[in-house]
Amino acid sequence: MKEVKIESTLTVFESFDELPKDVVSLMNKASEARLKAYAPYSKFLVGAAILLDNGEVITGNNQENASYPSGLCAERTAIYYAGAQFPEAKIVKMALTAGSQMQQTVSPIPPCGACRQAIAEYEVKQEAPIEIYFMGETGKIVKSTSLANLLPLGFDRSFL
Ligand code: THU
User: Fold this and answer.
1) Strand, coil or helix: 37
2) What's the gap in Å between 1 CA and the centre of ligand 1?
């Protein structure tokens, strides 16, 4: 028997001032998308912006439904649109921002497990890492250089 230790390294930026300019621009687009989210039930608005290697920026937000499980997260709304419109393009980076209408969201909000699985699929498909930046409405921004960092022991096509 042996123990296996799994570690991830993330970078934490204290504020926008520390971010590269292109990421500030991507995060601003994610914030614009967040404000257009359809989240009447949770009142938790999420925005995602995806930069593709062809220069296109795709945005998405969460779309809720009276039948709760029929709704979809911002990340998957955006990434499936990107996959549908630009199947040959690689995803370079994603910016995510989330905020509640009930209180100010100041801590970084990571993507949910289902979205991590969805993003992981594209990382495998394109054989290149996707940089992920996530934050609340304000405050610190967390960067992961790859989705794999956020989903240890992931399930992928190699098991099929
Ligand atoms: N949500 C996202 O859009 N992305 C996530 O990664 C976490 C959760 C949405 C789903 C639902 O509309 C609301 O946030 C509350 O869970």
Assistant:
1) coil
2) 39
Say how many Å lie between the CA of residue 3 and the centre of ligand 1.
34
Q: DSSP 3-state assignment of 26? A: helix
* Position in ligand 1 atom list of the atom nearest CA 73: 3
Structure tokens at 124: 């495998």
Token pair recorded at residue 54: 């062809």
Domain assignment of residue 96, given as a range: 22-69+77-150
Question: pLDDT, tens digit, for every residue of 98-135?
Answer: 999 999 999 999 999 999 999 999 999 999 999 999 99
pLDDT tens sequence across 41-82: 999 999 999 999 999 999 999 999 999 999 999 999 999 999
Under 8 Å between Cβ of 9 and 135: no
Q: List residues with catalytic annotation.
A: 75
143 in any annotated domain: yes
pTM for this predicted structure: 0.97
